């Protein structure tokens, strides 16, 4: 594997001095670079040694293994939480000191504030001592803000790093575990689930560490505040504290409810993404079957349930935020109502000390403490899920290989072996993948293995073949030649250094199979297990591989070859014929012939389960369970024809997922408008804006009224007006009812508007997510197949998982939060300016500096975010490709190397994550510094203007200014977050505007019984997969008569599959194609595609019941379905399933063998009863018996239909009515098979000769027989078609 990374810079934080560490100055050079140009991977700093993935993972793994052993001894389940605590508690506990300092300062600050306000209450212009004291208090307020700024961010940075360490260590363990899962365990989990553990569950560690310390700091702080308040306002403070205490459990309850909704939503999301994965993987089939509607209904159904859960949890979030917003108001309201009703008079210093103290404790009590509980419960769920995974069965490592002293022949010895599985499989038992119940299985020597479904991992072709071995040029060349890859390498743009995309997207099936074989051959092993490597290639290449490679390079090694191709049997030293997991016969070819066992009859006569002869063979059970069952790019390339190399390599080199289009710079207003309009119409939006302002106004007025009231009271106290009433002296009092009434009214308004605006905003934003998802999904369903060939599945799925996930959960919350904070900041500034108008003067430079800082920061931060997401995807693609090639990796003993690569990818991601953490802290420290400046100006400004200001106004201005700390930087961070998340909206919107294929239905509907005959005419058809792509069919004229059976042959890349694509209009062909005289380009795609049946190359089954797989529209009766299954001999298989027809199939139907899946596809065709059937290389992976069965069914059931077969094996089509031979996109010959065989220069004749002498004789015999038994139609070549159109028949060239 290539090195993951070229060279990184050493990390300056390791050597930075204390000042630089506190203010993160060591980052300045990075920001300078980031401001000048885009940051690239090379600009990132190396991971600090203590953050390395391997080091962290191994450490945690040690603790975990220890715990597992200990738990086994004590007969209890092992506890993962315990392990985590044991591993990380020390460094984490030290960080608690920071939190403590921070919270102590938060409590002392209001005390300074109160003393300062008291100076204004008892203002005496001549008392200088008091003034100096006041200056001291002002300095105290300012210093405490500064210290807060510093400790807060240091604390946050270090806790988040701890979180990162836990996450990285956990990922290392999960991957390590995934590499050792046994087959049984793989059945209990899915690739999607493992990816989910790695993408969602481990992220909880990043979140939980932030809040955990508040679990003990919170209560302490609350107690301290209570004490100070008691001193200040006496017992009334208890009323306020009571409200706080009531608020806490309600918020905790919200948190509980919220995580309940989360887990429900998560299940639905998993479900939706799995369905999406199948839709995207099987999109070719879905389009050819015209099954878009049932799938669309399926996804919409899941999505609707998911959205309703998301809506509920969003409303919860809204209530939570609104109650947070209103909490302080309610608390202060209740406190002072009680205070006044107890007969006390109100004063400014009391009011604002109380307001500030409540403010200090409120964040901790209502936000951090409940968050800690909520995150803790979420993390516990995740830890439980991870633990379940870590406790799955592992494969038992068998020790193959020789002991040093015994130098002997490598061999495999098997006696009375019994394994239980779908169709028990010999190779997997030899590999040690299958546990065997009894019997002996001894393997002496190093194994190597070529899997049936070829597996390649992202990287260059060379690294796929070398697979960690050193490059020996001569040996390497020899292997390339033996595996027929030499020619392909010359054709590829970068030769063997061409980068293979996601799941080998740039290679054809045959090429992948050959790379897969080359990998096995290149290893110097003792025993070679080759699982049907010849099935994916055509006869000529197959012959080459057999002679040059299997019997050439490997001729001195023991080889176990599984094959369905009987022509190679003579070369075998020993043949094992297996049937139903039993050995039917064994011996050499001649022995078996002498014993009268005729293989071919053996294969044909048996009516039961599929079995196949071979050098050493077995019944099939494919075991690739993967995130994306590969939808093979069907235009394949070949060794021989020259033009093919260019044919299906997408222009872009598919390195890790190519960085998708992302418009540089800030996000336009237009996008916000699109986003909001997706959720509501203009009127609603205007209403929302008004609500926001009303809520904020009520919020400020409520505080202002308190200050005003205190001011009025003050005037009374000073002037002490005495009036004479009825001869009694009465001190004038304020009208309590009036002041309290208005105060209550304002509080009520704040609550109502506050709640309303939260809920309305959430409603709008979640609706926006819903409508954008639906639009994107519909757009994806309607886009031409070409889109899926160019874009890796991962990229498309990413929009549906990551981006839609952002729109569902994170974005609405961040958006609402940002708007509330933004309005509050404006409120703070407005209040301060109303008290000291000239504060606006220093504010101007502050705002300018701030705007510059924000731009300066965002430039770098956006790149860091981008790097973080691009370095994350290799971690996942490495995981999913490893899971796909699990058997291969284990057979090659490459686990450690893959683990190291995984760690390297993790470290790369950690580098960007580390930068992400520090850059945000760098920014926050600077912003909070600016706030401290603002507080300082306000405090000293009040003192300088001591003659013009009232105590109440000072209190209001200062207590508001102090709240800016933290809130301001949080608001700015949220604004950046919103902008970053809007890129998700942008990416979703981009996919809602994809080009779409022709409409599904048009005005011109074909008659209902069309096509009644099944006459297909190609009239000068040219075809290419994209407007700028190469032309794959050139000016083709051909005609397929009604009821005719036509075989289509040609070398790889000749355009066989393209012919089908043109017929199905997977891309629009040029020229005209008629079916029964109807021009196909004029009717809707569904009308066209539903009238033709196809048995595709990759048999695709979808997760869901067997019934849904046969008949997604529920158009047929049960009887029909059973009959169809009976006809393809699957009835017994389905009847044995636990719920018969209603059995839910495993992911992509992996509990069926390839042959069985093929039969299900055949059953679908039987059910459709169409006049036209197309079979696309369906027999590539099927043993001869299933093949025979398929052929027989086609002859019986589809006698009245026009059948086009694209064949790899000539015996399947040698008795067709005619054979169409394609070469490089043009028709080479087109006639009856026997006639074609008379032409010794023809391609077809050569293809027949290549199958070997015996086979060729048999083929000629069959062709002759078919030729003689056929009745000849009088018109052989041309004439008038059924509906009066002149039809052009194609002359044999």
From TrEMBL:
Residues spanning the membrane: 92-114, 134-157, 210-231, 237-258, 319-342, 348-370, 682-701, 742-766, 838-857, 923-946, 952-972
Domain ABC transmembrane type-1: 93-377, 686-980
Co-factor(s): Mg(2+)
Compositional bias segments (type: Polar residues): 620-639
EC number: 5.6.1.6, 7.6.2.2, 7.6.2.3
Reactions accelerated catalytically: glycocholate(in) + glutathione(in) + ATP + H2O = glycocholate(out) + glutathione(out) + ADP + phosphate + H(+); glycoursodeoxycholate(in) + glutathione(in) + ATP + H2O = glycoursodeoxycholate(out) + glutathione(out) + ADP + phosphate + H(+); taurochenodeoxycholate(in) + glutathione(in) + ATP + H2O = taurochenodeoxycholate(out) + glutathione(out) + ADP + phosphate + H(+); glycodeoxycholate(in) + glutathione(in) + ATP + H2O = glycodeoxycholate(out) + glutathione(out) + ADP + phosphate + H(+)
Keywords assigned: ATP-binding, Cell membrane, Chloride, Chloride channel, Endoplasmic reticulum, Endosome, Glycoprotein, Ion channel, Ion transport, Isomerase, Lipid transport, Membrane, Nucleotide-binding, Phosphoprotein, Repeat, Translocase, Transmembrane, Transmembrane helix, Transport
Example GO molecular function: intracellularly ATP-gated chloride channel activity
Superkingdom, taxonomy of origin: Eukaryota
Membrane topology: Multi-pass membrane protein
One GO term (biological process): lipid transport
SMART domains on file: AAA
CDD domains: ABC_6TM_MRP4_D1_like, ABC_6TM_MRP4_D2_like, ABCC_MRP_domain1, ABCC_MRP_domain2
Chain positions covered by the region annotation Disordered: 607-639
Keyword Transmembrane appears in the UniProt entry: yes
Localization: Apical cell membrane; Basolateral cell membrane; Early endosome membrane; Endoplasmic reticulum membrane
Protein's UniProt keywords contain Nucleus: no
InterPro entries: AAA+_ATPase (IPR003593), ABC1_TM_dom (IPR011527), ABC1_TM_sf (IPR036640), ABC_transporter-like_ATP-bd (IPR003439), ABC_transporter-like_CS (IPR017871), ABC_transporter_C-like (IPR050173), ABCC4_TMD1 (IPR030240), ABCC4_TMD2 (IPR047083)
GO cellular component: apical plasma membrane; basolateral plasma membrane; chloride channel complex; early endosome membrane; endoplasmic reticulum membrane; recycling endosome membrane
Domain ABC transporter: 316-605, 1016-1249
Assigned protein family: Belongs to the ABC transporter superfamily. ABCC family. CFTR transporter (TC 3.A.1.202) subfamily.
Subunit details: Interacts (via PDZ-binding motif) with SNX27 (via PDZ domain); this interaction accelerates MRP4 internalization.
Name of the molecule in the record: Cystic fibrosis transmembrane conductance regulator
Organism: Oncorhynchus tshawytscha (Chinook salmon)
Gene: ABCC4
């Amino acid at each position: 594997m290539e090195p993951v990374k070229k060279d990184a810079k050493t990390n300056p934080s390791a050597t930075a001095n204390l000042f630089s560490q506190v203010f993160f100055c060591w980052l300045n050079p990075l920001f300078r670079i980031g401001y000048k140009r885009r940051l690239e991977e090379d600009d990132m700093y190396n991971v600090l040694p203590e953050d390395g993935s391997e080091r962290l993972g191994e450490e945690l793994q040690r603790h975990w293994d220890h715990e597992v052993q200990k738990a086994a001894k004590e007969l209890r389940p092992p506890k993962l939480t315990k392990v985590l605590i044991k591993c990380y508690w020390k460094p984490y506990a030290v960080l608690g000191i920071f939190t403590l300092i921070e919270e102590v300062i938060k409590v002392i600050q209001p005390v300074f504030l109160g003393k300062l306000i008291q100076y204004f209450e008892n203002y005496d212009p001549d008392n200088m001592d008091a003034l100096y004291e006041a200056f001291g208090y002002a300095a105290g307020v300012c210093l405490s803000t500064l210290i807060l700024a510093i400790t807060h961010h240091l604390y946050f940075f270090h806790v988040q790093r701890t979180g990162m360490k836990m996450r990285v260590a956990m990922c290392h363990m999960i991957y390590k575990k995934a590499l050792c899962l046994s087959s049984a365990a793989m059945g209990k989990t899915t690739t999607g689930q493992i990816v989910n553990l790695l993408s969602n569950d481990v992220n909880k560690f990043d979140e939980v560490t932030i809040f955990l310390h508040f679990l003990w700091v919170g209560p302490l702080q609350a107690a301290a505040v209570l004490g100070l308040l008691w001193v200040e306002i006496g017992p009334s403070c208890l009323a306020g504290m009571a409200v706080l205490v009531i608020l806490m459990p309600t918020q905790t309850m919200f948190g509980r409810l919220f995580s309940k909704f989360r887990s429900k939503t998560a299940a639905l999301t998993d479900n939706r993404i799995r369905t999406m994965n199948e839709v995207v993987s099987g999109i070719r089939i879905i389009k050819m079957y015209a099954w878009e509607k049932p799938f669309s209904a399926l996804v919409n159904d899941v999505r609707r349930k998911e959205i309703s859960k998301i809506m509920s949890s969003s409303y919860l979030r809204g209530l939570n935020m609104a109650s947070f917003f209103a909490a302080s108001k309610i608390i202060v309201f209740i406190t002072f109502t009680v205070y006044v009703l107890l007969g006390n008079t109100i004063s400014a210093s009391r009011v604002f000390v109380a307001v500030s103290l409540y403010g200090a404790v409120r964040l901790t009590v209502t936000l951090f403490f409940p968050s800690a509980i909520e995150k803790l419960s979420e993390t516990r769920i995740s830890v439980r899920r991870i633990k379940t995974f870590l406790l799955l069965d592992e494969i038992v490592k068998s020790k193959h290989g020789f002991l040093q002293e015994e130098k002997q022949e490598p061999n495999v010895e098997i006696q009375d072996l019994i394994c239980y599985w779908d169709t028990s499989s010999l190779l997997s038992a030899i590999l040690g993948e299958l546990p065997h119940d009894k019997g002996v299985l001894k393997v002496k020597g190093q194994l190597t293995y070529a899997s049936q479904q070829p597996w390649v991992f992202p990287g260059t072709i060379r690294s796929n073949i070398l697979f960690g071995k050193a490059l020996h040029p001569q040996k390497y060349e020899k292997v390339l030649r033996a595996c027929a890859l030499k020619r392909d390498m010359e054709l590829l743009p970068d030769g063997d250094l061409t980068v293979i995309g996601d799941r080998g997207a740039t290679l054809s099936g045959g090429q992948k199979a050959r790379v897969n074989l080359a990998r096995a051959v290149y290893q110097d092993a003792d025993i070679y297990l080759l699982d049907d490597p010849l099935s994916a290639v055509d006869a000529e290449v197959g012959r080459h591989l057999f002679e040059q490679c299997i019997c050439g390079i490997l001729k001195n090694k023991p080889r176990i070859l599984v094959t369905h191709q009987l022509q190679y049997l003579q070369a075998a030293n020993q043949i094992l014929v297996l049937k139903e997991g039993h050995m039917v016969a064994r011996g050499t070819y001649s022995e078996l012939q002498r014993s009268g066992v005729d293989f071919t009859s053996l294969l044909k006569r048996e009516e039961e389960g599929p079995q196949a002869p071979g050098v050493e063979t077995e019944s099939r059970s494919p075991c690739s369970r993967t995130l994306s069952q590969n939808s093979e790019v069907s235009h394949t390339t070949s060794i021989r024809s020259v033009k093919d190399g260019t044919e299906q390599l997408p222009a872009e080199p598919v390195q890790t997922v190519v960085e998708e289009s992302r418009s540089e710079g800030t996000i336009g207003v237009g996008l916000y408008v699109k986003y909001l309009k997706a959720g509501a119409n203009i009127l609603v939006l205007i209403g929302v804006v008004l609500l926001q302002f009303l809520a904020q106004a009520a919020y400020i007025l409520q505080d202002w009224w308190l200050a005003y009231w205190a001011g009025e009271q003050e005037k009374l106290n000073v002037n002490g007006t005495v009036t004479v009433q009825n001869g009694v002296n009465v001190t004038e009092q304020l009208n309590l009812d009036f002041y309290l009434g208005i105060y209550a009214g304002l509080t009520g308004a704040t609550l109502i508007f506050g709640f309303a605006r939260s809920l309305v905003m959430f409603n709008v934003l979640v609706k926006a997510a819903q409508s954008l998802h639906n639009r994107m999904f519909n757009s994806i369903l309607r886009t031409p197949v070409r889109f899926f060939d160019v874009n890796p599945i991962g990229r498309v799925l990413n929009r549906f998982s990551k981006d839609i996930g952002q729109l569902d959960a994170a974005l609405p919350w961040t958006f609402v939060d940002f708007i509330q904070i933004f309005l509050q900041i404006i409120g703070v500034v407005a209040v301060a300016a109303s008290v000291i108008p000239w504060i606006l003067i220093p504010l101007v430079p502050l705002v300018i500096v701030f705007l510059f800082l924000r731009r300066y920061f965002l430039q770098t931060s956006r790149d860091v975010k981008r790097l973080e997401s691009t370095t994350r995807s290799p971690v996942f693609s490495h995981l999913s490709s490893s899971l796909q090639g699990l058997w291969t990796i284990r057979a090659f003993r490459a686990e450690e190397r893959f683990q190291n690569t995984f760690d390297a990818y993790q470290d790369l991601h950690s580098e960007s994550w580390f930068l992400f953490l520090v850059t945000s802290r760098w920014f926050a420290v600077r912003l909070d510094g600016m706030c401290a400046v603002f507080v300082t100006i306000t405090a000293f400004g009040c003192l300088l203007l001591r003659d013009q200001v009232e105590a109440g106004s000072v209190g209001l201005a200062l207590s508001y200014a102090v709240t800016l700390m933290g809130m301001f930087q949080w608001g700015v961070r949220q604004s950046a977050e919103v902008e970053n998340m809007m890129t998700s909206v942008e990416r979703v919107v981009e996919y809602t505007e994809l080009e779409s294929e022709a409409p599904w239905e048009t005005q011109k509907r074909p008659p209902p019984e069309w096509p009644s005959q099944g006459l297909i005419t190609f009239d000068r058809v040219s075809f290419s997969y994209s407007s700028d792509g190469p032309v794959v069919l050139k000016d083709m004229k051909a005609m397929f008569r009604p009821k005719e059976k036509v075989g289509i042959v040609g070398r790889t890349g000749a355009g066989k599959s393209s012919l089908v694509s043109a017929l199905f209009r997977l891309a629009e062909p040029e020229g005209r194609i008629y079916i029964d005289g109807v021009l196909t380009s004029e009717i809707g795609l569904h009308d066209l595609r539903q009238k033709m049946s196809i048995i595709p190359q990759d048999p695709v089954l979808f997760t869901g019941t067997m019934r849904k797989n046969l008949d997604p529209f529920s158009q047929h009766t049960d009887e029909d379905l059973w009959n169809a299954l009976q006809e393809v001999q699957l009835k017994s298989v389905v009847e044995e399933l636990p719920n018969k027809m209603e059995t839910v199939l495993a992911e992509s139907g992996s509990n069926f063998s390839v042959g069985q899946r093929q039969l299900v596809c055949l059953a679908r065709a039987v059910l459709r009863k169409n006049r036209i059937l197309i079979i696309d290389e369906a027999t590539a992976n099927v043993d001869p018996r299933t093949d025979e069965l398929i052929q027989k069914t086609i002859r019986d059931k589809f006698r009245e239909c026009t059948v086009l077969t694209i064949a790899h094996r000539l015996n399947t089509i040698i008795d067709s009515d005619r054979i169409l031979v394609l070469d490089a996109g043009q028709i080479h010959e087109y006639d009856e098979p026997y006639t074609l065989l008379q032409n010794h220069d023809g391609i077809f004749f050569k293809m027949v000769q290549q199958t070997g002498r015996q086979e060729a004789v048999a083929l000629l015999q069959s062709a002759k027989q078919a030729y003689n038994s056929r009745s000849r139609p009088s018109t052989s070549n041309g004439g008038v078609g059924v509906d009066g159109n002149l039809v052009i028949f194609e002359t044999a060239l």
